[in-house]
Amino acid sequence: MVLDALLKIKNEQDPSLTFRRSCREGICGSCAMNMDGDNGLACLTKISSASSASTVSPLPHMFVIKDLVVDMTNFYNQYKSVEPWLKRKDPPPQQGKEIPQTKADRAKLDGMYECILCACCSTSCPSYWWNPEEYLGPAALLHANRLPLWGTLIKPKPNMFMHLQARGYHGVSEKRNLRDHKRRLLAEKYELRGKLYKAVCRDPDLPLDMREKFRYKLSKLPRNSSMTRLRNRCIFTGRWIQDSRDQFTKERLDAINDEFKLYRCHTIKNCTHACPKGLNPAKQIDTIKKLQLDA
After folding, report:
1. What is the mean pLDDT of the chain?
2. At what angle do helices 158-166 and 208-220 cross, to 10 degrees?
3. Quick one: pLDDT band at residue 82, thresholds 50, 70, 90?
4. Is 277 helix (H, G, I), strand (E, B) or coil?
5. Where are the beta strands (DSSP E) in 143-283?
6. 123 or 192: which carries more pLDDT confidence?
7. How does it sit in the membrane (predicted)?
8. Could you give the CA distance from residue 119 to residue 275 in angstroms, rounded to a whole number?
9. Cβ atoms < 10 Å from Cβ of 102
């Protein structure tokens, strides 16, 4: 591996050679650098046998402190700016209690939580090169996309919408209640079986009896027509999908809804190619853009 060669050089030829390394297992992200023109982790990158020499350089377009060590201050500040921690409006659970999350909700975090903040993706992005101070970059936006799924459901009865309002479902209004005959017409005309409706059925914050009612309605609906038209006719609610435990949906969307913070991404997809963990930051950024249109 490239890291083994660097350690050999440091130990036997040039003790002043400076680079970051720690786990040597592709877990910590410390040894990120550019090798033969591609960003990656030195501990996971094999030395090419196709040429007599390999070129190793610091991560591109970053201030170099010494040799292969770059200044990560701006990168970490951008990561901090998306507030990558749970924020809740409800009071904290009692001591010894946890915030429950279903296996299905946990599975939705796959492809995001594995990020090791090595900066390979951000430093491979031309948009990040051009706007390093304003554009958040693929890594920060990947973490920001533990964002909401804006869902739809047929209007529940008063006791149900009161609970939804208390749990942070935005836009639930008694005035927009659909009568039974309208509900049946919608059921005949449009499909409610999309993943948005299913997300509500599996919401652990809803009492079991309410979830069962939603499941029953779901089982009675035909499979036809589009979710988009239905969404324009039904109650508009917002909940977290990538991390169902967070309750600051709108605030997080507003914080990154900026010409530079988000929309400097031009879907070049260098970030996806460079990620040593096989993640897809470009897809997550595209998801955020779509959510901004729906918000």
Report:
1. 74
2. 120
3. confident
4. coil
5. 148-153, 235-240
6. 123
7. Peripheral membrane protein
8. 9
9. 12
Q: Which of 62-71, 85-94, 106-115, 176-185 has the lowest mean pLDDT?
A: 176-185
Give yes or no for a contact between 283 and 147, defined as CB atoms under 8 angstroms apart: no
User: 41, 102 in Cβ contact below 8 A?
Assistant: no
- Count Cβ atoms below 10 Å from residue 97 Cβ, excluding itself: 8
Contact 2/21 with Cβ under 8 angstroms? no
The CA distance from 123 to 62, in Å, is 7
Q: In terms of Cα–Cα distance, which of 77, 60, 78, 80 is closest to 68?
A: 60
Give CA–CA dist 20/68, Å, rounded. 8
- The secondary structure of 32-90 as a DSSP string is EEEETTEEEETTTPPPPSSSS---EEPPTTS-EEETTEE--HHHHHHHHHT--S---SS
Can you tell me the distance from the alpha carbon of 206 to that of 164, in angstroms, rounded to the nearest whole number?
Answer: 8
Q: What does the block give as tokens for 90?
A: 């409800």
Largest CA distance in the chain: 83
Compute and round to an integer the Cα radius of gyration of the chain. Answer: 24
Helix (H, G, I), strand (E, B) or coil at 150: strand
The segment with the largest mean pLDDT, out of 79-83, 189-193, 198-202, 249-253, is: 79-83
pLDDT at 200: 54
Tokens of 30: 């410390």
Tens of pLDDT, residue by residue over 136-191, are 999 999 888 765 443 333 333 444 445 444 544 444 444 444 444 444 444 444 44
Tokens of 29: 């992200």
Residue corresponding to tokens 């033969």: 36
Rounded Cα gap, residues 150 and 102, in angstroms: 19
- Confidence band for 220, pLDDT divided at 50, 70 and 90: low
**Structure token pair of residue 120:** 């390979």
